Every structure is written in structure tokens, then in C-alpha cells.
Amino acid sequence: MLQGFKEFISRGNAVEMAVGIVIGAAFGNVITQLVDRVVNPLIAALFGKPNFDNVLSFTFNGAEEPIAFGYVLTALINFLLVALALYVFVVVPMNRLAALRHTKDAEPEAPADDVRLLTEIRDLLKSSSQPGR
User: How far, in Å, CA of 70 to CA of 51, rounded?
Assistant: First the structure.
């Protein structure tokens, strides 16, 4: 059992997954700060405070805590802002870099030796079978 656990841990998949989770958590903080410190202040400057916590808030049957759909609306808008920031600042530039890299790599490759040899044989056969040669 210990040997199996050792093999599982030393496999690349488990290590890569752990690294991905740690990097993802750190990157999530970067995107959150981008939204909180850049995007939200821009929205606040244009439209007012980007907070809908008290929208659609009401008390039902004398409850101490009001029912507040605004918190859900605020969370939904924040989610969309994070997704937009992630798309604009990460996905689009990475897609452009990948396209540039693909364009550089798309240079035609020389044909393989066997293909080149077969092409030469075909051309020789074609020229020897033509009358007048």
C-alpha cells in the first residue's frame, strides 16, 4: 500500500494538479484584485456605487433578517466582472500569442525522404514513358 501511494504521488499528474491548484489560487487573487481595484472603481465612477445589496430587500412576517435578493445580484455581477476581466486580460492575449506562435510554426516542412524518393521515381517514370524522349 505504501509503495502504491508513493507511485501515485510521484506520478506527474498528481504533481501537476497540485501545482495547478496553487497557481490557480494565486492567479485568482490577481484577478480579484484587478476587479476590486480597477474595474469596480471605474464602474463606480461612471454609474455610481457598484453595490446592489439593498435592492429588492424586504422583511417577511416580522423576520429579523430581511430577504435580500440584492446580495445575489451583487454576487452575480461580481462573477460576470471577474469572468470579463479574466477573458479580456488573460484569454484574449494568450490566444493572440498562440496564434502568433502557430503562424511561425506553420512554415511548410520538407517532405520526408520516402516521399521525396517516390516523387523522383514518379517523375522519372513519367518522363521515360513519354514518346519522343
Answer: 8
Which residue's entry shows cell 511548410? Answer: 108
Instruction: Tell me the pLDDT tens digit for each residue of 46-98.
Output: 777 767 777 777 777 877 777 878 888 888 888 888 888 888 888 899 899 98
What single DSSP character describes residue 49?
-
Q: Is the dihedral of CA 90, 91, 93, 99 positive or negative?
A: positive
Global confidence as pTM: 0.52
**If you write DSSP's letter for every residue of 24-41 in order, what string do you get?**
HHHHHHHHHHHIIIIIHH
Mutual angle of helices 12-34 and 2-10, in 10-degree steps: 50
Asked if residues 77 and 52 have their Cβ atoms less than 8 Å apart, the reply is yes
